[in-house]
Amino acid sequence: MNFRKNAGYIITDSIHVGEIEFVLGVHSEAPFQFVTWACKDGKDYYWGHNHSDLMSATKDLIGRAKWELEFCMRRREQAQASKKGPEDMCL
């Protein structure tokens, strides 16, 4: 089975929104056992959010993806309103 790791955390879940992937990692021995990151290209992890329980980490993962999706939708609507094509990399 293939799996990814970052900073000792095993990536267990991910959500893709356009060019960005949001991931949830688990580490059984870390003070904060759960973390969410934004990720580019499956290897560039950034903006980590630490969590002590799975439920709050899952909520954060979904919330981050939702925020990015809403941002992309607003950019597309603005581009369409100004008669330009969507020039963003969101979707």
Question: What's the structural blueprint in terms of helices and strands?
Answer:
Blueprint: E1 5-6, E2 9-17, E3 20-26, E4 34-40, E5 44-51, H1 54-81
Antiparallel strand pairs: 1-2, 2-3, 3-4, 4-5
Mean pLDDT: 91
Number of DSSP strand runs: 5
By secondary-structure content and strand pairing, the structural class works out as alpha+beta
Strands of the biggest beta sheet: in what spatial order?
1-2-3-4-5
Number of helices: 1
The tally of domains stands at 1
The low-pLDDT segments are: none
Please trace the helix and strand order, writing H or E for each element. Answer: EEEEEH
What general outline do the C-alpha atoms trace?
elongated
End-to-end separation: 29 Å
What would your notes on this structure say?
The protein is of the alpha+beta class. It has one domain (5-81). It is 31% helix and 36% strand. The protein has one helix and five strands, in the order E-E-E-E-E-H. The protein has one helix spanning 54-81; strands spanning 5-6, 9-17, 20-26, 34-40, 44-51. Strands 1-2-3-4-5 form a five-stranded antiparallel beta sheet, covered by helices on one side. Strand 4 (34-40) and strand 5 (44-51) form a beta hairpin. The longest helix has 28 residues, at 54-81. The two termini are 29 Å apart. The model has no long low-confidence stretch (mean pLDDT 91).
Question: Outline of this structure?
Answer:
The chain has one domain. The protein is 31% helix and 36% strand.
